[in-house]
Amino acid sequence: MASLITREQIENFALQGLSYADDHVGDPFSIKDVSDRLGISYSYFYHNFAQYMGEPFWHYVKRHRLELAAGLLRHSGYNIGEISDLCGYATTAAFSKAFKQHFKESPKDFRQIIILPNEKRTLQITESITAALGPDAFNGLFNYERCEKVKLPDSILYYSLISRGQDPVAEMIARMTQYYNLFKKMQTLYDLPQSRIITGTLDAVPVTNYERLSMFAGILIPVPAIAAHIQLQQNFGYLMTKRFTGGNYLKLPVPMDFATAGVPMYNFISMNCKEGVFKMSGNHFFISMNGPSNSEIYIPQLKKHY
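^ Helix-turn-helix transcriptional regulator, sequence as received from the core. Prediction below:
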């Protein structure tokens, strides 16, 4: 079987496995569930995922769940028991034990850390780019008072991972035009007026090591748009999918491209969450790209803080 499969297919199997794990963070599943979904054997998927990703599948699943949990500890108002459940742990005790083994801190103590180790690098990168753009580049645009409170429907994201490893943000910027044009053509061809072309990461920005960030570009479509889902599944089966929970979001429009908007976005989110201005309901904030110089940032807001 291996001799008949190209490197691109091996990469696709691994990324599809990564996508499945991300979309089932809170659900119980087995490696066989993933291999059956991909139509390959258990052992073939197991070995090729480890070869391509550099870590065994279950190591990735556990790490990803704990990093997302750490992101929720950082930015959400959920209690530890709620975070444990959201990240697929049967009990809070099991979650707390696994968390301390991985991060060397209990969830409670982790929540009190002012600046995380990986966050330092993110802030350094942000500050260096901001300085290069000049002090007047953002002109007070990243201000909570400019946010609009909106409700988004439950949606499905059809996406491609456009960078992973080395310098993921730089790679994403280099490849984004190609993917934006693809999704723009899809919008026109299939008449998807309610859809959004978006970009973001599957990971928890202040927690996941920068070189391991998985950056995506995709098209977000409301669940009720049945005809659109059928068309995309039939014609773009190679795209990965992710469920996006609807509900309360903050929308911040900014007159700039996604790359420029992404520079101060994390600092804006982190600062407001730390100060209690708002709390997030998940790690799935994203940038909606409305044109070359027009973006909207969407931040999922926890209802009890709405």
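The longest helix spans residues 168-189.
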